[in-house]
Write a structure and sequence with these properties.
five-stranded antiparallel sheet, 166 residues, elongated, 9 strands, 30% strand, two-stranded antiparallel sheet
């Protein structure tokens, strides 16, 4: 390999000189004299988040036209959820109804979702009913029975063949 220097880095650049510097000085001053654009008004962070979430939902609608994407913010504004529902509404979840004594996944008023054995019991003296909820495993009672009214829980789904059956 030959040991000869190769001028590669500044090949296309003219040699620096005092005359060239003085020729470029008025152009640099003109560029510096142009006023910069005024800064835009500050955007609230929540407005920016809503704008970007709406833009993402619109992009997802363009990608998958079979679904209708919508934006959902939680109450404390700690997260944003973009949901894609089917346009025909076939994926809507309808709550289950009581269908005889069996295991049911229920949602309590405090947000917990246990799977309990539910039995409906009619009142003896007044019209109406309440539910007896128990935790069972292999036909054995695991907890004290709880008495629940319909205001205290919501049935989410019936769970077949849970806990080795009652």
């Amino acid at each position: 390999m030959p040991n000869t220097p190769i001028q590669a880095t500044a090949e296309g650049m003219p040699a620096p000189s005092r005359r060239r510097f003085l020729q470029m000085l008025p152009a640099a001053a003109a560029i510096a004299a142009v006023p910069s654009p005024a800064p835009a008004a500050p955007i609230e962070p929540m407005e920016a988040a809503r704008y970007h979430a709406d833009q993402l939902a619109a992009a997802m609608n363009a990608i998958n036209p079979q679904r209708m994407f919508r934006v959902a913010f939680d109450t404390e504004n700690t997260f944003v959820l973009i949901c894609g529902d089917r346009r025909d509404g076939s994926d809507r979840v309808t709550p289950a109804a009581y269908d005889g004594p069996n295991f049911y996944e229920i949602e309590l008023t405090d947000g917990k979702r246990p799977i309990w054995w539910l039995e409906r019991v009619e009142y003896r003296t007044t019209p109406g009913h309440y539910y007896v909820a128990e935790q069972r495993w292999n036909g054995r009672l695991e907890s004290k029975p709880r008495r629940l009214t319909e205001k205290q829980f919501r049935i989410l789904r019936k769970v077949e063949d849970f806990a080795g059956r009652a």
